[in-house]
Amino acid sequence: MSEEQLERAADVLARARRVVALSGAGVSRESGVPTFREAGDGLWENYPIEEVATPEALHGNPRRVWEFYEMRRANMASVEPNPGHYALAAMEPLYEEFTIATQNIDGLHQKAGSTDVIEVHGSLWRARCLSGCGREIYPFPYPAPAVPPPCECGGILRPAVVLFGESLPHEEFRSATIAATRADVALSLGTSSAVWPAAGIPLITQEAGGFLIEINPEPTDLTPRFDVSLRGPTGEILPDLLERVKRRRAESAGRDGE
Ligand code: APR
Known about the structure:
Elements: H1 3-15, E1 18-23, H2 26-29, H3 43-46, H4 49-52, H5 55-60, H6 62-76, H7 83-91, E2 97-102, H8 108-111, E3 117-119, E4 122-129, E5 136-137, E6 157-161, H9 170-182, E7 185-189, H10 201-207, E8 211-215, E9 228-230, H11 234-257
Parallel strand pairs: 1-2, 1-7, 2-3, 7-8, 8-9
Antiparallel strand pairs: 4-5, 4-6
Helix pairs in contact: 1-11, 7-11, 9-10
Bound molecules: adenosine-5-diphosphoribose.
């Protein structure tokens, strides 16, 4: 990763007024949360999607699906946000709008202090009636009272996460699209950009004339579309970028003050 690219990203971020950030599992990797597709320890390497993360699996064997999500909820008990999460939270007050559209369901952005967070794939801490009474519980703390947990209507609850083949929650996706359209800069952080429509959120900013920055130790399917692609962990690069942006803002404030 070249110093020149870091400087270019910092220049653009320092001049921006509105930013949208799409985050993925890589942002939580340094907190000890496994990603999905990483060779060897990615979740989907060890758990068959068709058994634990589809509507068919949920209707066919809700207990198995809940066991999978209870395992992930249990693992979160000892997990804390990392410097990448905290840098994003610290960036928020520097902009008119700083919106995180996260694919992560772990709640770590909010735990780090980010307030403008859109959960486009749902949350581990939310449950919804599967039997259609429409009841939704948030927060739905760990452990669940039973696996699968009952709903007051006599039915059972489901994890309020987006399963493969399901649509994204309408309101959340609409808000993310609006934020991306209004943004001067879109960040794509720790995502393989393999899952749509979330992966396309930064491209909405590009279509609106905005600048695109990707941060990932590995190139992704969308790397060629980005103006700058920074190779490295978000837990190291985001705090660095934050400092560079703050320095630039202070210098230009100083110049304006002369
Ligand atoms: N910092 C930044 N990026 C990292 C780091 C790190 N420390 N460690 C790994 N990465 C990158 C990997 O190189 C990879 O490109 O994070 C990415 C993780 O990709 P995936 O495992 O595919 O996760 P994600 O992109 O979030 O998946 C999208 O797919 O499984 C579904 O619903 C699930 O929201 C998820 C969606």
